[in-house]
Amino acid sequence: MKRLLLFLALLLSVSVSYAEKVKVRLFSNNKIEAIYVSFDLGMYDLYADDGMLLEPSLGEGMTVELKPTATGVSIAVNGYEYGNFRSARLQATDTACIMCLNPKGVKQRTYEGDLVVSSFDKSNLKIINEVEFETYLAGVVQSEIYGQQSDIFRVQAMISRTWAMRNMGKHKADGYNFCDYVHCQAYQNRCVRPDIILGTMQSSGETIVDADGKLIDTPFHSNSGGQTANSEDVWRSALPYLRSVTDTFSFHMRQSNWTKVIGKEKWLNYFAKTHKLDITNATVRDELLSFQQPERKARILGVPLTRVRTDFGLKSTFFSVSVDDKGANVILTGHGYGHGVGLSQEGTIRMVGLGISYDSIIRHYYTGASVHKDENVSESYVENFVTEISKIIEEDKANPGQKKSKKDDWLGKLFRVRDRMDREEEFDPSKQEMEEDWKVEW
Ligand SMILES: [Zn+2]
User: Fold this and answer.
1) Alpha carbon of 177 to ligand 1 centroid (Å)
2) Beta strand residue intervals within 9-160, DSSP E
3) Which of 122, 157, 192 lies at the terminal end of a domain, its last residue?
4) 269 alpha carbon to ligand 1 midpoint, in Å?
5) Domain that holds residue 42
């Protein structure tokens, strides 16, 4: 019990930086004609028009139905119609709150934090999740990478945090920070995996900086195919930390190799029509039919490979060309998946598997860059939180298949820790009272 109290005291000392919230637009790739919100854990207060309380303490068994109108939303709770308002806000009453979002015609998702709903027009809702930055990041990491080891998630969290801090104003004109789609970073659900929360926590306060200490641009892709690309070969500017490097770690993974068969005439005519190449010229024809990339190139006969990739829907620009036995088709033999600039996710997964440290991985993919640790994030805070999550993971492993209520599973326990921290701040109870309270809760 004493250990926990110490842990909580440490949590308190840095809680401010973690309470910072971001606004993320949800279902940004869909048109939402109605959404049904129910509650998996905790209580939510329902407000309309920035402050009018409609219903306090909504919880299990309650459903809020929101539909767009020309000027806002119509609100109903368990079938009771409240009418039309400019906006609706579902505000979590403590840290341990999970809501379940069921938009019409779209797969349901769960999120933490608050929800603010208004409309773009009478047939499309604007749905914003106001959520703690690190909670958002854990959801992003879960959406962006696969794997089993926490260092994989630590690297992805660092990249995603660095990207987010550089791009806080990306949707400023739209009234939120980020969308939940690949335009920003995928955020398809709340994080439901303790190992991902562990990796994200381990990376607390860590960002990636260049030699001058400035946050870098952190592009990543699925698999480099064995060599990453220079930034100027894919986009416009040549960045010193986005250099092409040999990357054997990307071999022998899910996305290491691909092939694509295209009709020979279709292939040649594409270059003739779209890029005005003279395919009657034997040298041109020969190059188009036997183009080789033992190392990454940026162009084929002056045509950017990025353009060819887009036009044929190829997995990467890192391919060589041959003609099949009958002479009817060209076969593209390719490596990797994605634009190839910056970090290879599958290379990272392999490096972590080989025991290579997370900071070495960052230095491998981002030339001359390094990991910066925010001094305001207490190391002991992170260590203690990591210890608590690790303990919860071990407990769960020791009791496989044991059915638990949401409050008693690992996430529930984690929420209790954070919730306790909030309440302690609010009520400042004596240590004696806390001890008693803890015995009941734990
Ligand atoms: Zn976006």
Assistant:
1) 8
2) 21-25, 35-41, 44-48, 52-58, 63-68, 73-77, 80-85, 88-92, 98-103, 109-111, 114-121, 124-132
3) 122
4) 36
5) 32-122
Strands (E), 264-335: 299-300, 303-304, 319-323, 329-335
| Centre of ligand 1 from the C-alpha of residue 172, in Å | 10
Torsion angle (degrees, nearest 10) of CA 316, 317, 323, 324 = -10
Distance of CA 167 from the midpoint of ligand 1 (Å): 10
- What is the 178 CA–ligand 1 centroid distance (Å)? 5
186 Cα to the center of ligand 1, angstroms: 9
User: Does the reported pTM lie above 0.70?
Assistant: yes
Domain boundary among 122, 151, 174: 122
Regarding whether 57 and 17 lie in a shared domain, the answer is: no
d(CA 34, ligand 1 centre) in Å? 22
Domain count, the chain: 3
Q: Separation of 185 CA from ligand 1 center, angstroms? A: 7
Give yes or no: residues 69 and 149 share one domain. no
Taking the centre of ligand 1 as the mean of its atom positions, its distance from the CA of residue 180, in whole angstroms, is: 7
Residue 214: partners with Cβ closer than 8 Å, 6 or more residues away: none
Q: Give, for all 442 residues of the chain, the pLDDT tens digit.
A: 444 444 444 444 333 344 589 999 999 999 999 999 999 988 999 999 989 999 999 999 999 999 999 999 999 999 999 999 999 999 999 877 999 999 999 999 999 999 999 999 999 999 999 999 999 999 999 999 999 898 999 999 999 999 999 999 999 999 999 999 989 999 999 998 888 998 999 999 999 999 999 999 999 999 999 999 999 999 989 999 999 999 999 999 999 999 999 999 999 999 999 999 999 999 999 999 999 999 999 999 999 999 999 999 999 999 999 999 999 999 999 999 999 999 999 999 999 999 999 999 999 999 999 999 998 887 877 787 788 788 877 877 787 766 655 555 566 666 666 655 555 445 444 444 443 443 333 3
Distance 401 CA to ligand 1 centre (A): 39
> Does a structural domain hold residue 72?
yes
Q: How far is the CA of 173 from the centre of ligand 1 (A)?
A: 12
Residue 423 half-sphere exposure toward CB, CA atoms < 13 A:
16
Residue 365, in any domain of the structure: no
**Domain co-membership, 37 together with 101:** yes
Q: Rounded to an integer, what distance in angstroms lies between the CA atom of residue 145 and that of residue 197?
A: 13
